[in-house]
Write a structure and sequence with these properties.
This protein has 485 residues and is α/β, with parallel strands linked by helices. The protein is 40% helix and 14% strand.
């Protein structure tokens, strides 16, 4: 059955959809249609969802029904909406767009776009030799069926060794290999979360984690992170766990996505203690743990303080190595790993053996590869910070001490409008509301520094030009939005 969004829900998602002076000179119906397309483009409004009736949306937005009627008509003409008398109107994919690997959609002809929506590096040069070596290792696995629900032992040993080197003794039996970090999160949620259970997440947080929680029909509560370098408010975070007693809390303590914050060691210990007292399981996303910059020391893993199997750690190869290598993992107690493997059999059986062998060879050279990645990211981060200071001095940015993204506080609640406008100049952005719930965070923008420095400087120049144009003049038309991942 097609899901439906109510008028008040869509109004919250739309936020300040026509608040900019330049946009006010455009017809309200065009602004409304463009804002709905923007929600579709960045995944906050799914494809195939039924929109509220025209009268209901008009009442929720406190505008005329004529405006909503005209906006819906424009969406039908652009291929974003299908309507049938008596059945309503539901969102759809335009014919000149395609679904990408992120699950969102993008124009077919956007090959020259500078994509600041995806926070991932290109593959390192060591990947090809590792793939060649993996093919030489493959024959010893060919006599078996090839299904290894917990992963091949070589890779589990390598991942366990990495945890042990970080001060957290780990055996291979405590590791399950998955098809990426997102897959690891999905499996953990399948095992640990029943529909309707309460979950605590940071705000802002990783959008695909929010999508996974929504798919499990979780009741999501948020803990707000400070926009400055402080990050987590210890009293508020611990109070949210103790008072809300969520079934599960999802945290990104190392160079948090999108803010780049690093959780202090003493808070990690207090969070684990609070979670145990409240009966809360902690899912700790360590996607960026190997990417500290400027020599920043990383505190012990959160699981170091766990004595009651309350902490499940997830990680993977995507951020320090390559997103195209779909290898992730779960670190938990051995019984939990076995339960995860049993749940996995009904989903995808096992990860590809060849990819796991490639990961083994890359992890064997981790020290050199990751050191080069850190040096590369430092140069690109500094180039992005310099360009922002020169071209957009009114934006406030806290220098991240690691990871691949910075979180910019803008000079107004313009994030979604800016993301739609920069599309016309060939820059794709991830607006702030993508990282929160119900259309909040319009004053913020995530900017990854994973592209070459020259591209980052060029992108900031284009963004700056569009930013100033937003206040000066109305744009002639609304263009088709693209994927944000």
């Amino acid at each position: 059955m097609t899901s439906q969004v109510r008028g008040v829900q869509l109004a919250r998602l739309l936020g300040q959809w026509h608040a900019l002076p330049g946009r006010r000179r455009s017809p309200d119906y065009a602004a409304l249609a463009g804002a709905i397309r923007g929600l579709l483009a960045d995944g906050r409004l799914p494809l195939g969802v039924r929109l509220p009736a025209e009268r209901e949306l008009a009442q929720a937005l406190k505008i005329s029904r004529t405006t909503v009627t005209a906006a819906y008509r424009q969406l039908r003409e652009s291929g974003h909406l299908a309507s049938r008398r008596g059945a309503g109107s539901w969102t759809m994919l335009p014919g000149n767009h395609r679904v990408t690997s992120t699950g969102l959609w993008t124009p077919v002809d956007d090959v020259d776009t500078i994509d600041l929506g995806v926070a991932a590096l290109a593959a390192p040069p060591e990947l090809v030799p590792a793939a060649r070596a993996a093919t030489e290792d493959l024959p010893r696995y060919l006599s078996g069926a090839g299904y290894h629900p917990t992963g091949i032992v070589e890779l589990r040993e390598a991942v366990a060794r990495g945890y042990t080197d970080r001060g957290l003794p780990t055996s291979p039996d405590q590791i399950m290999v998955t098809s990426g970090t997102q897959h690891a999160l999905d499996l953990v949620l399948r095992l640990a979360l029943s529909p309707g259970a309460g979950v605590l997440v940071e705000s802002p947080t990783y959008p695909n984690a929010l999508a996974a929680l929504a798919a499990r029909r979780a009741r999501i509560a948020t803990h707000g992170l400070a926009s400055d370098g402080a990050g987590w408010d210890a009293d508020l975070l611990l109070g949210s766990i103790r008072q809300g007693r969520p079934k599960l809390a999802y945290l990104i303590p190392e160079f948090q996505n999108p803010t780049g914050h690093l959780m202090a060691g003493d808070l990690r210990e207090r969070v684990v203690a609070a979670a145990h007292a409240a009966g809360t399981d902690l899912v700790v996303d360590e996607s960026f743990v190997s990417l500290p910059l400027d020599g920043t020391p990383v505190p012990p893993p959160v699981a170091t303080f766990d004595r009651h199997s309350r902490v499940i750690s997830i990680g993977g190869m995507s951020k320090p190595y390559w997103g195209g290598l779909r290898i992730g993992w779960v670190r938990a107690s051995a019984p939990q790993v076995q339960r995860l493997a049993a749940a996995r059999v009904g989903v995808d059986m096992a990860s590809p053996v060849l990819d796991q062998l490639v990961a083994v060879h890359l992890l064997a050279e981790a020290s050199g590869i990751v050191a080069d990645r850190r040096a590369q990211l430092t140069v690109q981060r500094d180039a992005l910070l310099g360009a922002l200071a020169e071209r957009l001095p009114d934006w406030r940015v806290t220098v991240p001490r690691g990871g691949v993204t910075l979180w910019a506080e803008l000079d107004g609640p313009i994030s979604s409008a800016l993301a739609r406008a920069t599309e016309e100049v060939g820059v794709r952005l991830a607006p702030g509301p993508r990282f929160g719930l119900d259309g909040t965070l319009e004053r913020f923008l995530r900017l990854p520094f994973t592209l070459p420095a020259a591209e980052l400087v060029e992108a900031v120049g284009r963004i700056a030009a569009v930013r100033y144009d937003l206040d000066r003049a109305a744009r002639p038309q609304w263009r088709e939005p693209a994927v944000i991942a």
